[in-house]
Write a structure and sequence with these properties.
The chain is an alpha+beta fold. The protein has a domain at 61-126. It is 20% helix and 22% strand. The chain contains two helices and eight strands, in the order H-E-E-H-E-E-E-E-E-E. It has helices at residues 4-27, 63-66; strands at residues 42-43, 50-51, 77-80, 90-93, 98-100, 104-107, 110-116, 122-126. A three-stranded antiparallel beta sheet has the order 3-4-5, with no helix packed on it. The chain is globular, with a radius of gyration of 25 Å.
């Protein structure tokens, strides 16, 4: 077993290593190779709740909002993976226990598409809002 003095020595060396690491981080300059910085926080697009930061899915819906998904007829839809290893995507209408072929749902009026996530599971991604084209108007004389 360790004695009290040995434990204190271990703790002091860990603090010294931590301080040295902090000094090294301050001295290093960011590279100009185009490093991508992840945002510190990420929000659900429907309820503005904080969600875990994801570089692959920067605007996915949170779990509470996923439970509010409805189809175009206003019927509540739940989605699940078809296989046990996280592949495939299928929806089921909760009220009628019917399978839904559509991977498009609405959450609080916003249109989402449901996809397989990269390493299994599902992700709800909003459709991009259509951008309006600028119309050039002729100057009246």
């Amino acid at each position: 077993m360790f004695g009290r003095s040995q434990l204190l020595d271990c703790q002091q060396t860990k603090w010294i290593e931590l301080i040295d690491l902090k000094k090294m981080q301050k001295q290093t300059k960011p590279t100009k190779s185009g490093d991508i910085k992840l945002p510190k926080r990420q929000h659900c697009p429907t309820c503005n709740r904080y969600v875990r930061v994801s570089s692959r899915y920067p605007d996915y819906a949170c779990l509470k909002c996923q439970k509010l998904a409805v189809n175009k007829d206003g019927q509540r839809v739940e989605y699940f993976n078809v296989s046990a290893d996280g592949h495939g995507c299928q929806g089921v209408i909760v009220d009628g226990n019917k399978l839904s072929r559509s991977k498009i749902c609405f959450i609080k009026g916003l249109r989402f598409r449901v996809e397989e996530a990269h390493l299994g599971g599902l992700v709800f991604l909003p459709f991009p809002e259509p951008q309006r084209k600028a119309v050039k108007r002729k100057k009246s004389v």
